[in-house]
Amino acid sequence: MTETIAIIGGTGPQGQGLALRFAMAGVPVALGSRDGARGAEIAAGLNAKIDGDLITGMDNDAAVAAADEMVILAVPFSAHNATLEGLKSGLVGKILVDIVVPLSPDDPKLVEMPPEGSATEAAQALLGPDIPVIGALHNVSAYTLNNLGAPVNCDILVCGGKLEPRKKVMALVSKLGVTAYNAGGASAARCIEAFTPILIRMNISKAVPFSHAGLKIWAPDT
């Protein structure tokens, strides 16, 4: 039986898109919200979009408890630390997948890294060494995730301090039909997270003929 994952901040555009994509891949999703009733309402709407029943809405604490192992954090950076503080005890025995990017509140084309160096490292420092924190899915646009008629158009860079949890997250992310790459330790998140505002700048630029682009790792021609 496929294990249930939790998405905290699941009622936002990024969280909803991930919930839809994972549910379409056959992964049960506990959709977390600060307001359990709103979580349930959003989940019902998402299930209707894909004619399914794998997404269940609830409050954040219940979502973490419902997760077999993987808990995805998809909140704005302004709520990052406070959310983790509130969920810390429930995360014992889980793996936190941190997809948060510390964008500047004044300009999303800029990043403002926390003192720890990245959101991923900040989460690990806050939760302590016994709860693995893995950074992933930083560079995928919410529009792309919610555009269910097209495949996700980028590769996924996965980083974190412990190798085995990193491999587990890579396997989970691969269910989205993407290629996941092991990008190394948690400090790699400083580069990976910082690329998101560059993508945002490019995607809104009138000088390029596209939007909603992502990162792709190209192998050399053989």
Uncertain stretches: none
Strands of the widest sheet, in order across it, are 3-2-1-4-5-6-7-8
Q: Helix/strand/pairing class, anyone?
A: alpha/beta
Q: Quick one: overall form? A: globular
Q: Helical content, roughly?
A: 25-40%
Order of helices and strands: EHEHEHEHEHEHEHEH
Would you give an account of this structure?
It is a single chain. By secondary structure, the chain is an alpha/beta fold. The chain contains eight helices and eight strands. The chain has helices at 13-24, 36-50, 60-66, 80-87, 119-127, 142-146, 163-174, 189-204, and strands spanning 5-8, 29-33, 55-59, 70-73, 95-98, 133-135, 156-160, 180-184.
